[in-house]
Amino acid sequence: MKQIIIAAAALCWLGALTAFAQEPVMFRDDFSKYANGADGSPVWKPFLGKWEVKDGRYFQSVNDQYDQGSSLAIQPKGRYTISVKVKAEGGPAGGGLFWNMTNRETRANCQMVRVDPEFVIWGWEDTQGNFQQTGIFNTGVTSDSEHTLSVAVDPELGKYNVLLDGKIVGRNADLRYYEGYCGIQSSLANSFDDFEVRPAKAVELEGLEIVKPFNSPRALAMGQLDRLYVGHRGKNTITVVSTGDPLSALPYTFGSVVHEFAPRGKGEGEMLDPVALVFDREGNLLALDRQRNSVNVFDRTGRFVRSFSTYFLFNPTDMALLPGGEVVVVSPGSNAVAVFSPEGKQLASVSDSNVFKGPETVTVDAGGRILVGDPGNHRIVVFSYGSDGQLRQGGTIPAWLIGSSLRTNSKGELFYAGGLGYYEAGGCVRSITQRGQRLSHFAGFSIGGLSREGGLVVGPNDVVYYADTTANRIVMIPPDLSEPRPRVDVAGDGATITWATPGLPGWNTPDSPVAFRYGTDKKGDTWHSMNVVAASAAISASGKDERTLGPAVTRRVTLSKLKPNTTYYYTFSPTVTTIPAGDPAVEASAEISRFKKTVDPTYSKTYSFLSAPPKGQRQYVTLRVLNAIYLKTDNKGVKFEAKREDIGDRIRLMAERAKEFYWRNTGFRLNLEMDYVVIDEAVADIKEAIPPLEQVRKDVAAATDFAGRKVANYDSINAIWLTPRYSKDQKEQLGRVGGGGLTPYGYSAFAADGMVAWLIVHEYNHQVDAFFDRAGYPEFWLNHPDETIHSGRFGGQYDC
Question: Residue 380: which of 410, 346, 352, 405 has the closest Cα?
Answer without folding.
Answer: 405
